[in-house]
Design a protein that fits this description.
The chain is of the alpha/beta class and about 180 residues long. Helix content is about 15%, strand content about 30%. It contains three helices and twelve strands; from the N terminus they run H-E-H-E-E-E-E-E-E-E-H-E-E-E-E. The mean pLDDT is about 90.
Amino acid sequence: RKARVRPQLPPDIEAHFRAKAEANLMAVRDVARLEDVPGIVAQVLASSNMAPDISIAPALRDLPWPRTMSVRSNKARLDERLTVSLATAGIAETGSVILCSGETAPSSLSFAAEVHVVVMHRSGIRGYLEDALDTVKALPVWPRTVNLVSGPSRTADVAGIVVRPAHGPKAVHLLLVG
């Protein structure tokens, strides 16, 4: 079996992942504890002038969400403004995150909203795509859908004119926990 050809990564893959994610137009923030996520989401809502009406991954429902916020832990609605999901892994090589669907993670949360907040544990950062996919393969239940998100929705026509959003969130906030 041949060895994989991989680009050289710097020793600090977390810093490289962050730089790549920011280059992909993700707003990256550090979060000390998972319990701090609702407060950061409230700040994102306020800075975007959005009503405190969101949909979150069921895996995050037990966090201390403010009572002033309407929080649904289900799949996203068609007219969703902000959703919050939990990433399985991050890829330092590209700055992308891997989102796996399941009972606690509806895939609609990744695409329906105007603003998508992705929560990821810092320990989930992997160097390369293959390493991140090994993390997915190690899950106790194989997901029906695996999405790689590399930033806000955008597309370009033949002339190279970039249009945002194309078919999904116009903003992605990545919260690195831990």
